[in-house]
Amino acid sequence: MDAFDLFRKLGAGAKFDLKRFGQDAARFKTHKPKGTDVSDPFSSIDYFGKASTNKPQEDDCEDGEVLNESEESDAGDKRKRKHEQTDVKTNVKKRKKSKVANIAEPNKPSGGEGISWTSDLDKKILNLQNGDKEKNSLKRLKHLHQEKVNRIRAQHRINVHGCDVPDPLCTFEELQSEYRLHSRILQNLNDAGLDSPTPIQMQAIPLMMHVNKDTSILTLCDCSGKTLAFCLPLLSHLQQPANLGFRAVIISPTRELATQTYRELLRLSDGVGFRVHIIDKASLAAKKYGPQSSKKYDILVSTPNRVIYLLNQDPPALDLCSVEWLIVDESDKLFEEGKTGFREQLATIFLACSGPKVRRAFFSATCTPDVEQWCRLNLDNLVTVNIGHRNTAVETVEQELLFVGNEDGKLVAMRNIINKGFLPPMLVFVQSIDRARELFHELVYEGINVDVIHADRTQQQRDNVVKSFRSGHIWVLICTALLARGIDFKGVNLVLNYDFPTSAVEYIHRIGRTGRAGHHGRAVTFFTENDKPLLRSIANVIKQAGCPVPDYMIGFKKIHR
DNA sequence: GTGCTCG
């Protein structure tokens, strides 16, 4: 297999653009570490290699339809068979693992690669395997313990799937006692007023702490607290600053989200000395991280294309071979296919993380059938965690569908909301950049503090808008999909879907900007005759979140492609 | 349709 072949396989079935990636592929070949087995350092070969042969099946679901647990049986037989296959695979692995555990020497610490995690209780059981007397009572103890864990998970609606999933964490203090988290970080947490973990943090943190190399984690969570859920184990895992170059990379779909994550990391690691970096401008960063620079950095937060730009320099201005953790935030967006899709960009970055112990974690609020299928097919040792029902909107948001007739009706209804007196801040979502501009010009003369954000504005403008929206100077912010994901504004009171969302997933992301951290929020969605095709799937989401919806909408026929 | 390098 030559480098091009290899690279094509690594591209996860993404369209292979020879012109664009030829250079990468060639470099990949020359960068192969000397004297190492090909299959070893590039564990990602398996990871992507299967993709080209097992390209995910056409999805049986209707376009944009959310796959609910209850509806899963509706999906085609193909999917079912696939799930069964995966289950069999998991069982085999489970058996293998328990075999390893049985032959392990009782007094040796069981930290080998075969056993990913053993609780204290498990260790006791191993130690006493030959002493039958206490064996039974210990078994009972273990059973009780498992029941307790199950109860905690049920209480917080934590669902896990995969083998060797560690127990949930109940207090942040356990991080210090169990994982030697820097005491200063714990103090920073307390200073920020964070005293107990949210459900996603309870499960994702211990999971990331126990994970082996080559294990991947998929985390689905509609609640806030995701950023902390991966930042804490990351800092805990890196222990302290080291001059090895970047050891962790976090990829976000928008610059705004990257900035937010970066700031969270700074706040969290204050006083510990970790060198956290965000690429503000790739051309500047080229000097900063280039071959001549010393390797005094630890964590990188960035959008994908900036990383790629640096990797494409000759010689590469960024070295990711010491990366131990690769975290993909809002991964469903980043897995989206498109003409110049995020997916190929991710493939390039995965490739560049060529270290021997890369762990990967994917975080997202929603799970498109695409992402899940892809993960199941391509990742070994996949563990998934999801909180609550998958693909549902948060329950703290009061949701409403409003028929406005036609385009003109939207403006009338919008003015109506404003005149009736609304509680700012309000986030208004539109379909395109042009429509964002138009609506802005309509509203700017109304005497309300309104501004607009989209990717065509300069970075300076974007930063300013976000800042003044956070500080309350802007009451109404018109935006495109740019702000749909992950951005955490404190106390957005109303999300207005001025243009109908393009899918149920998009809808869930948009309204997730309100009702955060347990606060009450409201979401109003305008619809016209033209929006009928997607009305049903979104009405379903709203209904499932417990908000009233007219029955006739649910009765609409499913759309088929 | 949206968002992701540089100049």
From TrEMBL:
Keywords in alphabetical order: ATP-binding, Helicase, Hydrolase, Nucleotide-binding, Nucleus, RNA-binding
Major site of localization recorded for this protein: nucleus
Domain Helicase ATP-binding: 207-385
GO CC field: nucleolus
Enzyme nomenclature, EC number: 3.6.4.13
Compartment(s) of residence: Nucleus, Nucleolus
SUPFAM superfamilies registered for this protein in UniProt: P-loop containing nucleoside triphosphate hydrolases
Domain of life where this protein originates: Eukaryota
Start and end residues of each stretch annotated as Disordered: 30-118
Compositional bias ranges of the Acidic residues kind: 59-74
Motif segment (Q motif): 174-202
Family: Belongs to the DEAD box helicase family. DDX52/ROK1 subfamily.
Domain notes: The Q motif is unique to and characteristic of the DEAD box family of RNA helicases and controls ATP binding and hydrolysis.
Function: RNA helicase.
Protein name: ATP-dependent RNA helicase
